[in-house]
Amino acid sequence: MKREYPCVEVNLGKITHNTREIVKLCSTKGIHVVGVTKVFCAKKPVVKAMLNGGLEIVGDSRIENLKRLEEFKCRKLLLRIPMESHAAEVVKYSDISLNSEIETIKRLSKAAKRASKIHNVILMIDMGDLREGVLERDVIDLVKEIISLENIKLAGIGTNLTCYGGVIPDGNNLGKLVMIKKEIKDKIGYEIPIVSGGNSSSLYAVMNGTIPDGINQLRIGEAIVLGRETSFGKDVPGCYKDSFTLKGEIIEIKEKPSVPIGTIGMDAFGQTPHFEDRGIIKRAIVALGRQDIVSEGLTPLDKQVNILGASSDHLLLDITNSCNLYKVGDIVDFNMDYGCLLRAMTSPYVKKYYVD
Ligand SMILES: *Cc1c(COP(=O)(O)O)cnc(C)c1O
């Protein structure tokens, strides 16, 4: 099949393998994994590959993505706190949602009643990262209110760390989450089934054995997709780091100076650029730009190629030192970090191909 560029090539076998490794690692600690699909827009072949790795539940931040996955029989979890205005869709397309606003949960209750469904809610508690979640001191009152609502089941408590504030999950904050579960049991007599202890950053604590007992769910995206935990960026043992490869086509190669000629003002994005004079260099332009990628998050697979910069539609490479004799029309491969992968997968200009 003739390919179009730029494209992302996804190795589905590697996704299945990584999922299996992470499910196995977590199961040694009694932890269930929610496979998070948002970074690849819940593309069906990748979701299927994840499910083949032994997952029973997938999570996404967008209800539109979960709606597209209706044909998949697994359970579905909505990660982003729902918009009140989406209550009916949330109840229809997800089995469980993360929540922090009682008014929204009341709307979900009404929508669930109308649909004759029970909707599961995980109450998010802010353990210090300062993104979503209620404060600890409000938990008991909220739990009382939530368990009184019709067609709502309080399925768990959870937290999210290392997203806004960069707070590392540890025995202190995750330990406290487990304590809150005990407190709810002691004060109200309600047994909380799920304690959802965060995202790929919590995997580090699983890897070194410090994850507190009682955490029984993690919501994992990046570690499955890129093979690394996100507290310290350490590799997850046995996982592939190259499941996703970005490919772009060279449209120009010229020997030109390394420093622009003329008075230097602002670049296309309002920044004043700086240049190191390395004389004449061999430069390649790849038909890829900020509409498709985050250039800072790209790593060429050819170690002798350096990225000079990018504008909306052009990626500039220094290929002076490469052993490859690049020519116009050649394809250059890159690894991507999380932010770049997110951009590439959401860009309508980047084609997606799947290999086994
Ligand atoms: C994105 C997200 C996750 C998964 O994060 P990764 O770092 O990709 O593992 C987990 N929980 C919530 C609430 C999220 O928004």
TrEMBL record:
InterPro entries (UniProt xref): Ala_racemase (IPR000821), Ala_racemase_N (IPR001608), PLP-binding_barrel (IPR029066)
Cofactor entry: pyridoxal 5'-phosphate
This protein's name: Alanine racemase
Organism of this sequence: Clostridium omnivorum
Lipid metabolism as UniProt keyword: no
Pfam families: Ala_racemase_N
Domain Alanine racemase N-terminal per the UniProt entry, residue ranges: 10-225
Lineage of source species: Bacteria, Bacillati, Bacillota, Clostridia, Eubacteriales
Entry keywords, A to Z: Isomerase, Pyridoxal phosphate
